[in-house]
Amino acid sequence: MNDYAMSDDLFRQRALEEDGCMITAVGAGLAKEMTFDGVNVSLNEEQRRFVQGKIQEGQFRSVNDLFQEPLRILESYDRLKTVQIRDLRARISDSISAVERVETSRRAAICRESDLAIARRGAEQESWIARAFPTARQGAEGRGS
Predict the structure, then answer these.
(1) Mean pLDDT, the chain, as a whole number?
(2) Reduced to 3 states, what is the DSSP secondary structure of residue 43?
(3) What is the pLDDT of residue 128?
């Protein structure tokens, strides 16, 4: 009998202690398939030895405890991923808002420059008209008074 072998009675007792976990084995203590509340987990020989070793070392009390650990890690990973995605979306939104503010500011500056250019051009045109047609301007002023 190897280090991982146990009697069929002890095997059945352990299976019952696994909170409804039924372990199907080929020979005493050789777990091939584990069922957890209707979920089957198939292990190859190396994985089976690994699981049995972790339990015998005392790192886990049972197969159930051993499989709960990666599930806790997966849940933590999912929560972390959710937070990271939410933070990334917030940063993207902030970046888009910043670009929009810059674009709005840039458009406002262009409009101010355009308004100044139009005003300058209007003043230049009035000055040119006044120089080109001095009597027309004087006549218009005279009629307006």
Answers:
(1) 77
(2) coil
(3) 85
DSSP, collapsed to helix, strand or coil, labels residue 138 as: helix
**Residue at token pair 């008209």:** 129
Q: Strands of 4-130 (E only): list them.
A: 22-25, 31-36, 39-42
Q: How far is 129 from 136, CA to CA, in rounded Å? A: 9
Query: Rounded to whole angstroms, how far apart are CA atoms 77 and 29?
Result: 33
Q: Examine the pLDDT at 4 and tell me if it is beyond 50.
A: no
pLDDT tens digits, residue range 79-104?
A: 999 999 999 999 999 999 999 988 99
84: tokens are: 């990271």
Using an 8 Å Cβ cutoff, are 4 and 49 in contact? Answer: yes
| Greatest alpha-carbon span in the chain | 126
What is the C-alpha to C-alpha distance for residues 3 and 56, in angstroms, rounded to an integer?
A: 9
- Are 11 and 25 within 8 A, CB to CB? yes
For the whole prediction, is pTM greater than 0.85?
no
Half-sphere CA count of 20, side-chain side, radius 13 A: 5
Ranges assigned E (strand) in the chain:
22-25, 31-36, 39-42
Structure tokens at 91: 């940063």
